Amino acid sequence: MGTAPVARVLLDAPLPQLDRLLDYAIPAALEGDVVPGVRVRVPLRTAGRVVDAYVVELGEAVDPDRPLSEIDEVVSAVRVLPRPLYDLARRVSDRAAGSASDILRLAIPKRQVRVEKTWLARADAVEPAAPTAEQIAWAEQMLDVYPGLGDALQGGERIALDAPPRPGTTATGEQAAAWALLLAAAAARVLAGGRSAVLVAPDHRDLDQLDRALAPLIPADALVRVDAARTGAERYRGFLRTLEPAPSVVFGNRSAVYAPVSRLGMLAVWDDGDPLLDEPLAPYVHARDAALVRQELEGGALVFAGHTRTTDVERLVAVGWVRDVGPRRRESPRVVLSAAREGERPGVRVPSAAFAAAREALAHGPVLIQVARPGYSPVLVCGDCRQAARCLHCAGPLHTAARGRAPECRWCGRAAVAWRCGHCQGEKLRLASAGSTRTADEFGRAFPGVRVIVADGDHPVLHVDARPALIIATRGAEPVADGGYRAVVLLDGDRMLMADALRIGESCLRWWSNAAALAAPGAPVHLVGVAGQVARALATWNQAAYARAELASRAPLRMPPTARVAAVEGDVDAVERALEQLRTEVELPEGTVVGPVAVEPPDRPRGRAATRPGPAARALVLFDYAHGADVTASLRASVVQAALRTRRPARGGAPRNTLRVRVDVPDPEL
């Protein structure tokens, strides 16, 4: 007599100690319904309630004599968790010392019953039409700009692409960015070969460009968009489409990297240096890292494309893991390093050369002016001692919201009436920088009669026409212009570079390069007031060389990405215990652990059971990629042990010995 099969399920629970497969008995009433991939509800004894779970596999009980809890119900007949998606979630979470259920919450949208019923009741799925011969010919012409790119896609290689920095035209004559056209052509070729493609981009602006480029090439029933702008029903409908065996093209934000398409042929990540691709939820996995893991598991081509080269991708190129593929003919914008001329006042914000370029270009079309910050005057200082101006009521920073209005506090909103400096008792305020609104006022007075459009977080503008206009935009908020901008002026570059961040040079080069790529062919791009290595990289359009130099400078300090960095934070005892266990289990060189140092304890919930939180600490662990699996396994074990200790807190006390781990911190600091 054989042993009755059991279902091994993964609980949808945040507790780290439950991040493993658990055996549940299958009741007779549910036999045949409990299959791998379906959603179920199971009892959890430790919680005394029924929780959601996914069936990962069926098997035999390890101990037949041990009684098992039974599955309570099958939520849906749809197999929302294919085995490749579980394997990906497991591998990605292990690499980040996190839980697989946290990854699956990003990958699997919430169930929509009405959408699901319609999908289940439909006839057998029809194989979607492939791109036409004309569409394929157009795509091949786009790909031919990069020698060997077509073969690399077919061979499933990992490649790094320097995207063409110019506007382009779709197969139907619409305006779209050249980089979007290139990725759309690659996706069309992959789909024509009977395989799926996944395109990942940072935000809705990039997705709109991809949408415009993909629509003329990909059949509508094979195209799926994934982003926060989709309704719950639309997102679930698109997810169900990816579960079908027919190939598809998925494009979306960072969670699209987990789309469970069939027969993955290409996974492309656009502009991987954008912080929007860095997942803010545990286990904080960057889309680039998830893409690398997925390509290793499922095969297919992996493409990192951008106007700049991040140090992370350049490291992969240097070690031979990713191949650099360049265009047949190198394209670059006409970048001018604009500085004050002889006789001009030093430190002038807009030198005469940039001003003249803007005036000349306005006769032909729109001009882009990039600034560092939004608002009128983001920073106010004392006119005497130059100390930052602070509110007299709450010590918050002061700012000028608009021309002619009294300064206001950013925190409490009070007007700074009868303000006095707390450092020197001075009574005068001085504008230390100009935001987008103030810059618009200044240029509006300098160019009377010209349209002035502000584009920032408070005034989103996605598109402008080809008529003359001054577009004042903050970094990353630049709208797309028909035919490209006739001139681009990049202001406040020196202030941007002053930010206290490890990757500020990379970020500035990315902001400026993306803005320069919006210029029309041959249009001037003026970088104002910046010199040095970053400015030379932009002027020569050799961002890869800058990334190589950055890698060389970080290697002696073991800063990312030359080494991996994990941040360990929590109660002092838990942090010290985790570090001691790490030293015992993994043989690491001297200087691997930095800290721990005291930090502010996390906020604890108020109530009768809450007590004053104990002291907290934070440490950094710097380790080589070769030690990654051992380090993350040790840290994950410490997280589980700390969580188990919190199960029985002292009577009337708050949980103690909590521990949090984040691996691959992009900009570490103690």
Please tell me about this protein's structure:
The strands form eight sheets. Strands 10-11-9-12-13-6-14 form a seven-stranded parallel sheet, with helices on both faces. A six-stranded parallel sheet has the order 15-26-25-16-23-21, sandwiched between helices. Strands 2-1-4-3-5 form a five-stranded antiparallel sheet, with no helix packed on it. The longest helix has 18 residues, at 628-645. Helix content is 29%, strand content 21%. It is built from 18 helices and 30 strands. It is an alpha/beta fold and 670 residues long. It folds into four domains: 5-82, GIY-YIG endonuclease, CATH 3.40.1440; 133-325, 3-Layer(aba) Sandwich (Rossmann fold), CATH 3.40.50; 334-378 and 433-540, Rossmann fold (3-Layer(aba) Sandwich); 564-663, Alpha-Beta Plaits (2-Layer Sandwich).
Could you outline the blueprint of secondary structure elements for this entry?
Layout (H helix, E strand, L loop, with lengths): L4 E7 L10 E4 L13 E6 L4 E12 L12 E2 L8 H13 L4 H8 L5 H9 L11 H11 L5 H6 L3 E5 L4 E3 L5 E3 H15 L3 E5 L3 H11 L8 E4 L5 H12 L5 E4 L11 E7 L16 H12 L2 E6 L4 H8 L4 E3 L8 E5 L13 H10 L4 E6 L8 E3 L15 E2 L8 E2 L19 E3 L4 H11 L5 E4 L7 E2 L4 E6 L5 E2 L5 E4 L2 H5 L6 H13 L7 E5 L4 H8 L2 H12 L9 E8 H14 L7 E7 L16 E8 L4 H18 L13 E5 L7
Helix pairs in contact: 1-2, 1-9, 3-8, 4-6, 6-7, 14-15, 15-16, 17-18
Summed up:
This protein is α/β, with parallel strands linked by helices and 670 residues long. The longest helix is centred in the last third of the chain and has 18 residues, at 628-645.
